[in-house]
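LAB NOTEBOOK - FOLDING QUEUE
OPERATOR: T.R.
BATCH SIZE: 2
PURPOSE: Compare the predicted structure-token outputs for two unrelated chains run back to back under identical settings.
PRIORITY: normal
REVIEWER: second-year student, initials M.K.

ITEM 1
FIELD SEQUENCE / FIELD STRUCTURE:
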Amino acid sequence: MLIAYGLWNIMGALYSLRLGDETSIAPHILATNVQLALMVAAMCFVAAGFHGWMRWYSILSLAASAVMGMVAFAAAPGPNLVLGIGERISIGAFLLWVAVLAIALWKPTAKDRIPGSKEMKP
């Protein structure tokens, strides 16, 4: 999901929203909705696949991102301060979640260790 999300971000550059250009609105909304679906799916899969703190962190991050996304949506249309801040906090919550996920996945497990040693298996 995260690889698809990253690849789909290219579409955001191809279908950027341009002020004063009404024809850019529909493709931009479609591209960002697919991006949003991939983001939510990745967070839901991690919440379902992990136990403990990472599950709860995923749920809280998803909730924070969703709430701020709704705030941004309510402030639309047009560029304004609430819309910009809502979007940035929403995507920031997701990006912080990706960093925390990377740290959680980096940590070696007990089965990766050589028995009786602090060394990792080759």
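ITEM 2
FIELD SEQUENCE / FIELD STRUCTURE:
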Amino acid sequence: MTLQYDIIIRPVVTEKTNIQKEAANQVTFEVDRKANRIEVRRAIERIFNVRVTNVRTMQVRGKFKRRGRVLGKRRDWKKAIVTLRPGERIEFFEGV
């Protein structure tokens, strides 16, 4: 079994995720590609000491990018959208 800190890689902070955080109490994370929903749920609950209602995961394909004649590809990654119980919050960059 892997550690919960190996499962959760980083929070995804964009305009869309900020709207989801305020409107639906959902937080988005980049997670390990081999992790399943149950492992993600346990890791979030242990690390942040919150209760999780629902976890949705999806594979994000890396985009092809070009620099002049050189064609490259961004890496593939897995995203997890975690819905928290009402009243629960995870604070990342509050007051910055």
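REVIEWER COMMENT (ITEM 2): The mean pLDDT is 93.
FOLLOW-UP: none requested
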